[in-house]
Amino acid sequence: MDRNTPTERTPLTSLSESFERYLQDKGKGRGGDGGNYRRNAARELERFAEWAAGDRGGDDWTGIVPDDVDRDPTFEDLDERVFREYARHLAGDRGLKQNTVQTYYRYISAWCGWCVNEGYLEAHYAQRASAMAPLPEDDGRKPGDQQAWTSEQRHALTRYVDERARDAVEAYTTLPEDTDPLDKQRARYAALKAARDRALVFVLAYTAVRVGELLRDPNDPRRRGVRWEDLSLDDGSMDVYRKKQQWDAASLPDPVISPLRSYRRLMDPPTERWPVFPTFDQRTLATLVQDDLADRGERPNAIDERRGEYARDFILALEEDIRPPSITTDGARSILQRLSDNAEIDIDHPKHDYLAPHGGRRGMGEVLVRAFGYTVAARYLDNSEEMVRERYSHIEAGELGDVATEALEEIDSLTQL
């Protein structure tokens, strides 16, 4: 199939119809490494498809399609329980090492994330905690092997989103006065989205706040995403609901302040209770606007006319103070996948082919440990010093290696005298 040929994406689309397009995207511009990844991913996708159809697995496994239905597996059949069962299937193969099970599952998880971005799935089911629960712990995987944004990656991504936001804001603010209202709204929408993405990237890159503390968790009403009322840009702080189940202040360092100020000025939220990082998903916003206006007594025809006056439902929501939900952690991963691809950032990691949210936190952890030591880093990361020492032990090991090398060189030089 030609990669430029549009494919209908519905819950009834068969899983295999997405494979070739996914593999083409993964192979794009990756040279030899891309070829290896594509070959390995194709093998694991084929195994997953066979398992989903009931052609692989235990004797009592009949696949994910209901027994009374005669068709191939489709996206309608997928949810987190399916991926949990597949994780259990992989973990139950005694011929596979623990790390191999993790690696095989990551190929399927990466495809699942791509399917969310492409509109095949509504959520990244494979990354849900319940789906991954049956997977074994990595054996021999060191904390330093986990993704951490390097200085080069952080600078490349922040520079890209900054330039993109500046261009979008300038395009909006320099429109002629006689610009058509709908065109002006489209320009504002593009500027808002670019400014939101820039602010999100800068916060993830420099604050070391956990993404789950920053955004909405659909399964935990306490985690509704930070609101503007939670931020104090003058003081450089932000209130977040921490992993330890209590509210606490997180630092907003200087690089984060300007993107947030510019973004807030552009958005001009109706109230301080608006989320800092609202969703821009059109289906979600359309339903939200229609339901809210109906609750206010508007009739369907009047609602349609009202929506027709706006280029995007998000702009209407701003005008009418119809507060949207915050993006979710899955949404943040999708945004970072898109931005990492568009920025063409060089990423070499076995699990993520994009700059994942937690990598920003770990990257800042590396910077702080190297610059100020474990105690300061622990305070900034909201972790115990013991845990920080464990997770960043590769740094100390490397430094001790340098000390050992220096000692050997000194001793060798003395013995040669």
UniProtKB/TrEMBL annotation:
The keyword Protease does not apply. PANTHER family: INTEGRASE_RECOMBINASE PROTEIN MJ0367-RELATED (PTHR30349:SF41), PHAGE INTEGRASE-RELATED (PTHR30349). Transmembrane segments: none annotated. Pfam families: Phage_int_SAM_5. InterPro entries: CB, DNA_brk_join_enz, Integrase-like_cat_sf, Integrase_recombinase_N, SAM-like_dom, Tyrosine_recombinase_XerCD. It comes from Halapricum hydrolyticum. The lineage of its organism: Archaea, Methanobacteriati, Methanobacteriota, Stenosarchaea group, Halobacteria. PROSITE patterns: CB. It comes from the Archaea. Keywords: DNA integration, DNA recombination, DNA-binding. Residues 10-116 form the Core-binding (CB) domain. The keyword Acetylation does not apply. This is Site-specific integrase.
